[in-house]
Design goal:
This protein is an alpha/beta fold. The protein folds into two domains: 3-196, Rossmann fold, CATH 3.40.50; 221-387, Glycogen Phosphorylase B (Rossmann fold, 3-Layer(aba) Sandwich). It is 43% helix and 15% strand. Helix 7 (236-257) crosses helix 12 (361-373). The protein is globular and about 60 Å long. The two termini are 20 Å apart.
């Protein structure tokens, strides 16, 4: 019998470990975590969730704001910021290492993801942060899965080999798009183990009588997101052209429609937060005389309300585009990675996305005019996209529920 098939005694109540890059003030990751917690608490009786996070206090505040915190949740430091847990007394700051091993051994399932992209482009060997937990789960004979994961690019031959090894031993690999699933299969993973689905945020049902935002009687309200382009990933000329093109588009929208511009930040920590990107934009000559409001939000519902209030949206952040679609707000996407383009193309919205390397002011403005003219049609189209995407997204959860049921 293979090592991964040996059954270890587990606790009577199911224990699931959620492992991702949480508590980094990234609205997309917060949204993913909140959806996971709600889904598992609702669908698996007596489930206990162990959330590995880089900041336990911040994660608890998030779950409390979302009304999800209860005594069925345990928070542990993930090691994201180094061997010592920040903010903990020195004699307790390394306890997380042994706690992680113990909890992994006790768990019924370890989920690696969702959302996070398997890649070593933004940081050398970054993908090993995720692969290491799969290795730990294998040693403790704990079933694990790459869950709702994304795939960008892995340059290191060693990282590719380790991903191939751990993916083969996983209970399953579920991806948020077909492109990512194809890249996983190309590693030599059995197609029967790889599930091409949709981002799990589509599981969430927003409490709203109508997901289509109404037209404003006065000036149109146009929302947008932005991001910093790291020099380790994008050449300086790409970043420069991006800011020039986006600033030109926003200025044209303001000039032609008399529109109010609303900036919605998604990533709000570190030196590369979205506010820095906004500063770059507003320093451009094209936008210096154009007023921009900033949407301050605290809960995910208030974030979504800000997007739903817009007549249209220019999305750079991946989950800003998903929230636009989920809110019925027509969105023009600017794709800085495969994930945005893949999603838009797979839901037949490929004409509404521009790859950042090919963005120009003229091209963005032309795409915007097309979107604006067809905004009513897009809003109706989004309803159908959400229905089909919800069915695919819920299969992520179904796979976990099925696995736990089969091993009780």
């Amino acid at each position: 019998m293979k090592r991964s098939q040996i059954k270890q005694p587990r606790t009577a109540k199911p224990r699931i470990i959620l492992f991702g890059t949480y508590a980094e003030h990234n609205a997309g990751d917060d949204y993913l975590l909140a959806v996971q917690v709600k889904q598992f608490l609702n669908r698996i009786p007596d489930v206990h969730l162990i959330i590995l996070t880089c900041d336990r206090a911040e994660t608890r505040r998030l779950l409390e704001r979302e009304g999800l915190w209860n005594n069925h949740i345990t928070l542990l430091y993930s090691g994201r910021h180094g061997i010592r847990e920040p903010g903990a007394p020195w004699y307790r700051s390394v306890h997380w290492f042994w706690q992680n091993i113990r909890e992994t051994a006790k768990a019924n399932f370890l989920l690696i993801g969702p959302g996070n992209q398997l890649q070593d482009v933004t940081r050398r060997m970054r993908v090993l942060f995720f692969i290491s937990r799969a290795v730990l789960a294998w040693f403790t004979r704990t079933p694990y899965a790459y869950f709702g994961i994304g795939f960008y690019k892995i340059k290191s031959r060693f990282c590719r080999r380790m991903l191939k090894l751990t993916a083969r031993k996983a209970a399953f690999v579920s991806t948020r798009d077909e492109g990512g699933a194809q890249r996983i299969r190309e590693l030599g993973i059995s197609a029967s183990k790889v599930f091409s689905l949709r981002d799990i945020t589509f599981c969430h049902h927003w409490q709203s009588p109508d997901t289509i935002s109404p037209e404003h009687p006065g000036k149109p309200l146009i929302g947008f997101s932005c991001r910093i382009f790291l020099p380790t990933v994008f050449p300086s000329d790409v970043a420069e052209n991006f800011y020039h093109s986006l600033a030109s588009l926003l200025a044209a929208i303001h000039r032609e429609l008399g529109a109010e511009l609303l900036f919605i930040p998604f990533y709000r920590s570190s030196a590369f937060h979205d506010g820095v990107a906004l500063d770059h934009l507003q320093s451009r000559a094209e936008l210096k005389e154009v007023p921009v409001k900033i949407h301050q939000w605290d809960t995910l519902a208030s974030l979504r309300e800000g997007i739903a209030a817009c007549d249209a949206f220019v999305g750079v952040r991946y989950h800003s585009m998903l929230l636009s679609v989920q809110s019925g707000t027509p969105v023009l996407g600017i794709s800085y990675g495969h994930k945005t383009r893949r999603f838009m193309e797979e839901v037949s919205l490929g004409d509404d996305v521009v790859i950042v390397e090919s963005a120009t002011p003229d091209r963005l403005i032309a795409k915007w005019h097309e979107l604006w003219e067809n905004r009513a049609t897009r809003s109706l189209q989004y309803r159908k996209i959400c229905e089909s995407s919800r069915a695919l997204a819920e299969k992520h959860i179904d796979l976990v529920v099925q696995h736990i049921s089969n091993h009780e």
